[in-house]
Specification:
By secondary structure, this protein is an alpha/beta fold. It has three domains: 213 residues, no CATH class; 194 residues, Rossmann fold (3-Layer(aba) Sandwich); 72 residues, no CATH class. Helices cover 36% and strands 17% of the residues. The protein is built from 18 helices and 18 strands. The strands form four sheets. Strands 10, 11, 12, 13, 14, 15 and 16 form a seven-stranded parallel beta sheet that branches. Strands 1-2-3-4-8-9 form a six-stranded mixed beta sheet, sandwiched between helices. β5 and β6 form a beta hairpin. α2 packs across α3. The radius of gyration is 26 Å and the shape is globular.
């Protein structure tokens, strides 16, 4: 989604007329979108004047395409500035510019992570070059038109207020690899940035590149289970964005410190639906296994995802015993010794139970047992996703047992995943759902920024058959029900018995012909 786009001539006029920020703000409002209000408005006024100055050169054609605030497909992230056109060889290119108003930043010991004053406090954030690079890669991954038509993306970062005296902090050798991928320019380097852009764009394209990107075919996001084998073989399948990268590098650093100093850490990573908790958890698992050869497990209380992983990895020629060692149930640590593992990564920690075993008669508390068993325990959690009364996973419970086990707690702004990557990346849609269900009042109660088909049925039978047709496309449609119907067929083989019977003749069974890999089975729609 492009918020503002036009030719360089139009962009120049809007900047010189001091109307550019107002036009962008208007586009946000008429689309029902939200932004960071005053601070973001000021950033448009300041940063876009700097970009207008960079492009004030006769070598740039007045009809090259300019865009501001492009929302990356399938995410809630936005690219600050795009310049589209051709170079002297008539190759079609798009330059991506990440704009920052920072005057200074601080280097860290974490790859691709710096500290900067943003959001009214100094916090750990991704290096601007990494941010620009990750946004470009994400566009490439999701936008089929960019790939199919060989449209090249060239990312860079422009810190137009950055002090030269603080340059060493942001061009430290630790960041050199990503700076090579996405060059960084500061206050005194306007000419260097101009020359970088000239290498890729000076003339307009015969085809409207921004129109192609805006209306390009969107690839479905990768399914974690389909990429797991490749990831365990050391391949990069997901490019982590912003806070995902911060969480990943923070946990990596804490594991290094724990191993070096013989101390314990407990990390709480909080994130809502679709914020990438499972992706970051699996990324950590593969990092520690393939590059650091540590003793690490990935834990889920629910057996369903583990069974899918087992099946997918078996297809990828991994030995089942090896896979079952890596992926464990939450009750596996009742008898573990202290610090037996280097790192234990618990996904969906809100689903943890107190007792373990089939009869819930083993151990004392799964949270305590996991923390005790590992030098570093990482809990990915969303307290709003508790399902049953036996789910005891909570932030307060993790804090309590971390203190009891002598494990240093790490839980702050650096371990929160705010953005989400489902529902077409629409934060407005999530806010709308929260308001609709009475979870919390939001400003999006009357609309949201999303392009979905919404159908209200008065016949559940018709809905089921329409969903069945959708399922024939790629086996990714299901009809589900909550725990609000008695499970009458659980101990009955009578085919005349149904769990769900509605007044209009609709009938359905829980777990009909169920297998442990129902999530991916070809015939599991019913």
């Amino acid at each position: 989604m492009l918020i503002y786009s036009g030719t360089k001539q139009q962009f120049d006029q809007d900047v010189l007329n001091d109307s550019i920020a107002h036009k962008i703000d208007y586009q946000f409002r008429i689309r029902g979108l939200s932004h960071e209000n005053v601070s973001e408005f000021v950033s448009w006024e300041n940063s876009l004047k700097k970009m207008q100055s960079v492009l004030a050169d006769p070598d740039f054609g007045s009809d090259i395409n300019i865009a501001v605030e492009y929302q990356i497909p399938m995410t809630s992230k936005r690219v600050d500035f795009l310049i589209a056109g051709t170079n002297y060889q008539d190759e079609e290119n798009v330059v991506i510019v990440e704009l920052k108003q920072w005057e200074e930043a601080g280097k860290t010991s974490r790859d691709g992570i710096v500290t900067a004053y943003t959001g009214r406090m100094v916090r750990a954030v991704t290096h601007p070059s990494y941010q620009a690079y990750s946004y470009a890669k994400t566009i490439e991954n999701f936008n089929a038109t960019v790939q199919d038509e060989n449209i090249s993306l060239y990312p860079c970062a422009y810190l137009h207020n950055y002090k030269k005296s603080k340059l060493d902090e942001i061009v430290s050798p630790l960041y050199q690899e990503v700076i090579n991928l996405a060059p960084l320019y500061i206050k005194s380097e306007e000419v260097k940035l101009r020359n970088f852009i000239k290498k890729y764009v000076t003339k307009s394209s015969k085809s409207n590149l921004l129109f192609k990107i805006e209306n390009g075919k969107i690839r479905p996001s990768k399914a974690l289970q389909d990429t797991l084998a490749s990831m365990l073989n050391g391949n990069e399948e997901f490019v982590m964005i912003d806070e995902q990268k911060v969480v990943f590098e923070t946990v990596k650093r804490l594991v290094e410190k724990a191993m070096k100093n013989n101390v314990k850490y407990t990390v709480i990573v909080e994130g809502g639906p679709g914020s990438g908790k499972s992706v970051v958890a699996i990324q950590l698992l593969t990092e520690f296994i393939t590059k650091r050869h540590l003793n690490v497990n990935y834990i889920t209380k629910n057996a369903a995802p583990r069974n899918v992983y087992f099946e997918k990895l078996k297809q990828g020629n991994f030995k089942l015993n090896y896979v079952k060692f890596l992926f464990k149930g939450s009750g596996s640590y009742v008898d573990s010794s202290k610090n037996e593992f280097d790192c234990l990564i618990t996904d969906e920690a809100h689903r943890l139970n107190a007792k373990s075993g089939m009869f819930k008669n083993k151990g004392e508390n799964q949270i305590k047992e996991i923390i005790n068993a590992s030098r570093v325990s990482v809990f990915f959690i969303d307290e709003d996703q508790v399902v049953t009364a036996s789910d005891i996973g909570s932030i307060s419970e993790i804090k309590k047992w971390a203190k009891y086990c002598g494990s240093t707690l790490y839980y702050n702004e650096e371990t929160k995943l705010a953005s989400q990557f489902r529902c077409n990346g629409s934060d407005g849609y999530i806010a709308f759902i929260n308001d609709l269900l009475g979870i919390k009042k939001t400003a999006n109660y009357d609309g949201f920024d999303i392009d979905y088909d919404l159908i209200l049925y008065d016949s559940p039978e018709k809905m089921r058959e329409d969903l069945r047709e959708k399922n024939n496309i790629n086996n990714k449609s299901r009809m589900i029900a909550g725990y609000c119907y008695e499970w009458r067929t659980k101990n009955s083989n009578d085919l005349a018995v149904y769990d769900i019977e509605l007044d209009n003749g609709f009938k359905a069974r829980w777990n009909f012909s169920n297998t442990i890999t129902w999530a991916i089975d070809e015939d599991s729609f019913d």
